[in-house]
What we know:
By secondary structure, the chain is mostly helical. It has one domain (25-85). The protein contains three helices and no strands. Helix 2 (26-37) crosses helix 3 (42-85). The mean pLDDT is 83.
Amino acid sequence: MRKFLKSLVIACSLLLVQISASAQCAMCRVSVENNVSAGDTSVASGLNFGILYLFVMPYLMAMVIGFFWYRSSKKNKLKAMRFIKR
């Protein structure tokens, strides 16, 4: 019980600590800021598109795997129902 409480306190303290992090590397940030201040937004929009691409891909892969798993499960269930009816 004592070990559990100690682990719980550590986990809660780690969750409550806020760490400031930059969303981009320093070179990317400077490049985007310079281009935007000069009136060119193509680099910024390209960077945003890349971030969205990296954000969506894992979810898309999980959805495709889930779809095929669901379809396979449904086929197996239909096979089992046909086997029981015989």
